[in-house]
Amino acid sequence: MNVVKIRDEFKSRVCEQIDLEAEGEGRFLVKTPFRVEDGDHFVITLKREGEHWIISDEASTLMHMSYWMNTKDIESGNRKEIVENSLSAYSVQNREGELVIAVSEDRFGDALFDFVQALTKVADISFLSREVVVSTFMEDFRAFMKSQVPEDRLEFDWTDKRRDPNRRYPVDCRVNSMKRPLFVYALPGDDKVKDATITLLKFENWKVKVQSMAIFQEQELISPKPLARFSDVVGKQFSSLSEETKPRIAEFLKDAMGQSED
Description:
Largest sheet: 6 strands, antiparallel
Number of strands: 11
Mean pLDDT: 90
Number of helices: 8
Distance between the termini: 85 Å
Strand content: 15-25%
CATH topology of the largest domain: Yope Regulator, Chain: A
Oligomer: single chain
CATH class of the largest domain: Alpha Beta
Shape: elongated
Number of domains: 2
Order of helices and strands: HEEEEHHHEEHEEEHEHEH
Structural class: alpha+beta
Helix content: 40-55%
């Protein structure tokens, strides 16, 4: 095996930013610039099996995806079909979680090119799944608020028409008919936390007297700095919209709505 020749073939067929690092007899780590959506590099190895060479992900890709979704979701329905079609299109096999491609006729560059394409297609499912999760969270949030607040006291995507005619500072949900209306924010991630912080600070600057409450999708996943800034301006926070927290959220809403308008 000519390592220099294979490295050059990888560079010419895939990209220049590729290197090989020996990790033992008949085994090499393939270093590439390609990453999954959260920033980690793909794990790719070139190794000998019997008389043949294969390229493998060491079962890392599907395992990485399991951090963002239930493994069963990958093994059934549309996601399973997408994974299988992506692998089949590039002649990649799934060996009980390990994704591999055989190097045919010493065409190492072609094998790596196809393997990277397949990994990218499969990893994209994790990003799509997170988008679905966020969408589901917002739907659950709206449904929960509708179940707890009378329709005539509830406004979604509310903005202050007089002070904010361009709708730059929206509130996910406004509960009215109290002395101080309640602003409720549904927060799936860092960006939304930052936006809610800015909005609450703007209303504070306008000297608008309100109550405020936040429901996180998963508070523990919010970065410390945005969370700290938001905590300084929001009134009440709930770490999630789970079955454990829903009764406490409902009780808080009930108490807030019981306040007189006088």
